[in-house]
Amino acid sequence: MDLHPPVEPYDTGLLEVGDGNELYWEVCGNPAGKPAVFLHGGPGGGLLPDFRRWFDPDGYRIVLFDQRNCGRSRPSAGDPAVSLAHNTTAHLVADVERLREHLGVERWLVFGGSWGTTLGLAYAQAHPERVTALVLRGVWLGRLSDNTWGFTPSGAAHLFPAEWAAFTAAIPAGEQDDLIGAYGRRINDPDPAVHVPAARAWMDWELSANALLPVPLPDLDDRTLLAFARITHHYIGNGCFLPPEGLLAGIDRIRHIPAVIVNGRYDVKTPPVQAWALHRAWPEAAFHIVEDAGHGGGEPGSRDLLLEATDRFL
């Protein structure tokens, strides 16, 4: 199956959400169709046009938005002077609900990938009455073990040793006992000569394992790169602003909601153990491990299951 045809928004805007923040949002597809909201990854990854294509535009009213401080939302974390003090999981959950109210949506399907699964689960647990179904790809539960997997020598570094070596080489030996703290000091430094190379090294590592087979890293401008790095680091450094057990404790609140869980067998960013833990806690949800896929949802096995899910829920 291929993604649905490209589609352009018929409505866009900026929504004030408090604390001086405005969210960029767009709506495409059928104005009278079944509402669905797409939650992008990262955190801080922002929207891409292909994200609209997970949904049949003839049947869905498709809502997408850039989460706080990234993409076209304002102010951008690409400005090192912009504070992230009001950018937490609770703030993002409130933003999703405020956008739903603003657009006059009663209930909607929630589709999330990677960090989008974290936010999708958190939103559904906070507002289960507003969710018709969940489609989750590349599950990130936000537990301490999940957040440290990518930033210790005994985690993903075993599979990407050259990339890990480049990541650690950017930090002096005396600071390597706390790589996250060392990167935070540099990424948030006001001097571009400090924060740009630090953000690039951070994101080179962050994006190195997004697919089963190697793909070129995206060519991000310095402002987009810094926003992505600052927000991702902000969440990793603060345990995703979730309790130590992540989101498993709230499954009973959403157990009745139809859901599909898809994870690549060779997903190095969000290893299948997280999707498996979610499946064990929530056996009512459809569960798929794709044998020939990594983290990216665009690989054929994952893509087909996700498209089948959105078509079936329509």
Plain-language structure description:
It is found in: Cytoplasm. It catalyses: Release of N-terminal proline from a peptide. Keywords: Aminopeptidase, Cytoplasm, Hydrolase, Protease. With 314 residues, the protein is an alpha/beta fold. It has 9 helices and 8 strands. It has an 8-stranded mixed sheet, sandwiched between helices. Strand 7, helix 8 and strand 8 form a beta-alpha-beta unit. The longest helix has 16 residues. The radius of gyration is 19 Å and the shape is globular.
What is the compact description of this entry?
With 314 residues, the chain is α/β, with parallel strands linked by helices. Helices cover 33% and strands 17% of the residues.
Number of strands: 8
Low-confidence sequence ranges: none
Helix amount: 25-40%
Number of domains: 2
- Sheet with the most strands? 8 strands, mixed
Secondary-structure element order, as H and E? EEEEHEHEHHHHHEHEH
CATH architecture of the largest domain: 3-Layer(aba) Sandwich
What is the H level of CATH, i.e. the homologous superfamily of the largest domain? Alpha/Beta hydrolase fold, catalytic domain
CATH fold-level assignment of the largest domain = Rossmann fold
Cα-atom radius of gyration: 19 Å
Q: What characteristic shape results from the CA principal axes?
A: globular
Figure out the total of helices. Answer: 9
What percentage of the residues does DSSP assign to strands (E)?
Answer: 15-25%
Subcellular location: Cytoplasm
Enzyme class: hydrolase
Domain AB hydrolase-1: 37-295
Family: Belongs to the peptidase S33 family.
